[in-house]
Amino acid sequence: MAPANDDRHGGIAVEIEPLEQLSESECWTLLRTVDTGRLATPTAHGGVDVFPVNHLVDQGSIVFRTALGSKLTNALGAAEVAFEADNVARTIGEQVVDPWSVVIHATAELITLDTELFDSFELTVRPWHVSNKPYFVRLVPTLVSGRRFRIGSGE
Question: Model's pTM, two decimal places?
Answer without folding.
Answer: 0.77
